[in-house]
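Trying the structure run again after the queue cleared.
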Amino acid sequence: MRTDHSTYSDIKQYLARHDTVLIPVGATEQYGAHLATGTELRICEMIATEIGAQTGLAVTPIVPVNYSAMFLDFPGTLSVSMPTLEAYLGEMCDALAGQGFRHFFFINIHAGSLGPIESVCRTLRRKYEAVGGTIDVFTIMREVGGAKFATTNAPSGHASEMVTSVALAKCPDLVFMDRVKATPSLRPFVDGVKTLSSGKVSLGKSSFAVFSDISDYAPIGTQGDPTGATAALGHQIWDAAVSYMSEAALKFSQMSFKA
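Done. Tokens:
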């Protein structure tokens, strides 16, 4: 049930039976030369809406702008500070809690929002004895999608084969495959240390954080090779992710922190 597609009386009837709300948190940012800046936004909103339809749980409108400072070198990227994002989510959830919602499940698609989401959830617990949690869209796609990728070079990285396949399947109007480019390898910052993402490098058997911009190690904004992406693979990943996330949302809606 999309709350923005429902009347207040519909939502009041829902609250008589349920107290769970799904909150999609998206991002508007560069996505390589071949994907529109609204790709994450559209994917996150669509998957949250589909989960709501499968579970009967309430879904709010998407939060459209995130902390995306690592992409600001690229035109069209929108970014707010983490305190701004935390304040926005906190005030939004405070309003919902005042209406009777007590389970807040964030459908998240961007790493920059993890800290603000955790802070909001812990505040909701202290203030309302609410249950808060989050699930990461791309982690689920990566871990349950069962994909056999055409490339071994960061296939699930930013703007690479996984998300491009999903976009081809679910929002092809945002994909420009005639402009697709591959990043053959991510530039290391020092010998012996492998760059993994905007915030993580590996050394030997473990890793540590380095808060770089994507332009520091992947100048075209793509972590890997998206040229092998297909809509068929995207549908497979999508269906598996929706199924898992729907089950997770229902389990979450039944959770209690009280013994």
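The chain has a mean pLDDT of 97. Worth checking whether this holds up in the mutant runs.
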